[in-house]
Amino acid sequence: MRRIATTPDWYEPYLISQAIEANGLIHVSGQAGIDEQGRTVSGDFLEQGRRAFENVRRVLAEAGAGLEDVVKVGIFVTDMAANLDGVIKLRGEFLSEPYPADTLLEVAGLAQPDWQIEVEVTALAPSAR
């Protein structure tokens, strides 16, 4: 196993790896709409979602991979009814064909009360391509 981390590593204080590479796969921990200091970017769902996907992209880049290597995505939202169209828009902005397998869940809450979306992925490691 190999730990993947960005600089700064906004998850280090919480004893969480941003990602782990194991057996040809990169497992990226859930990424929210936060900046490099761990602050939520705004109250806007799409802005938080874009930042969450950008954070995923940044972690994958540290492992030598990109969003085109994603095989599975998990998207967690706090209000499905209000944000389903936004999730579809985000998928179109950041993911491409063949679209990865996907799980979309509404949750009662995320790690911070102002977070509206969190995105986790599994991607092919460069060694598996």
Overall average residue pLDDT: 96
Percentage of β-strand residues = 25-35%
Q: Got a strand count?
A: 6
- What profile does the largest beta sheet have? 6 strands, mixed
Radius of gyration: 14 Å
N-to-C series of helices and strands: EEEHEHEE
The class by helix and strand makeup works out as: alpha+beta
Count of individual helical segments: 2
Shape: globular
The helix fraction, in percent, is: 25-40%
Strand order of the largest sheet: 1-2-3-6-4-5
Q: Give the termini separation.
A: 18 Å
Describe the structure.
- The chain has 129 residues and is an alpha+beta fold.
- It is 26% helix and 29% strand.
- It has helices at residues 45-62, 80-94, and strands spanning 2-4, 19-22, 25-32, 70-77, 101-106, 117-124.
- Strands 1-2-3-6-4-5 form a 6-stranded mixed beta sheet, with helices on one face.
- β2 and β3 (25-32) form a beta hairpin.
- α1 crosses α2 (80-94).
- The longest helix has 18 residues, at 45-62.
- The chain is globular, with a radius of gyration of 14 Å.
- The two termini are 18 Å apart.
- 30% of the residues are buried.
